[in-house]
Design a protein that fits this description.
By secondary structure, the chain is of the alpha+beta class. The chain is built from 4 helices and 5 strands. It has helices at residues 17-91, 98-111, 143-155, 190-194, and strands at residues 115-121, 125-126, 130-141, 161-169, 177-188. Strands 1, 2, 3, 4 and 5 form a 5-stranded antiparallel beta sheet that branches. It is rod-shaped and about 140 Å long. 8% of the residues are buried. The model has no long low-confidence stretch (mean pLDDT 86).
Length: 195
């Protein structure tokens, strides 16, 4: 048996083979531990970071691939929305068309044997990107003629919404009704058109 106190580091070459082997094994373990701590551990951390980055990039590629695959469908939807927008834009009157629009409403009333007591534009009401233009309509006539007039307004090429409708008989003996309705149409604001 070897006594460790008798071993001197200066005479390492003269130590017994077992003691030399133990020292070599210890030195190898220490060197491996230091190497693992200072070299391998940062490498493993870097590898983990790269794996996370790879996962993020894979999910980004999958997302982008799905977006590219959906692009033709989205383009078709955009084209449809643009055509609907153009159609709605054509249904909104320009400032110069308001007089002819009023004449058209009057014409629908005359065609349905109605007598106007009032038809005029109210004050513009500002909304987000539109002006709301109220149209005050008061007329007298038969119930069915008023219904036909309302249907003709609904079929007009311009957007006109009828709201706040009220009616009452002209007199107890008469079947004629006095009809009051507030109609609305809309215009784009000039700032919204320039954008």
């Amino acid at each position: 048996m070897v006594d460790l106190q008798e071993l001197d580091l200066d005479e390492i070459t003269e130590w017994p083979l077992v003691a030399q082997s133990i020292l070599v094994v210890l030195l190898v373990l220490v060197i491996q531990g230091v190497g693992a701590w200072f070299y391998l551990k940062p490498q493993v951390a870097g590898l983990e970071a790269l794996k996370q980055k790879e996962g993020t990039l894979k999910s980004t590629i999958i997302t982008k691939t799905n977006q590219v695959a959906a692009l033709p469908k989205l383009q078709a939807q955009l084209d449809e929305l643009n055509s609907r927008y153009d159609l709605l834009l054509k249904q909104l009157p320009m400032e110069k068309e308001l007089a002819s629009m009023l004449a058209s409403v009057n014409e629908h009333g005359i065609e349905n044997n109605l007598t106007f007591t009032r038809i005029d534009w109210g004050d513009k009401q500002e909304q987000d990107f539109l002006y709301r233009l109220p149209l005050n309509i008061e007329l007298t006539g038969d119930y069915y003629n008023i219904g036909d007039f309302s249907e003709a307004i609904a079929r007009s090429p311009r957007i006109i919404n009828l709201d706040d409708a009220s009616w009452h008989r002209v007199s107890q003996e008469s079947s004629s009704l006095h009809f009051h309705v507030k109609a609305y149409t809309y215009q784009f604001k000039p700032e919204a058109e320039s954008d």
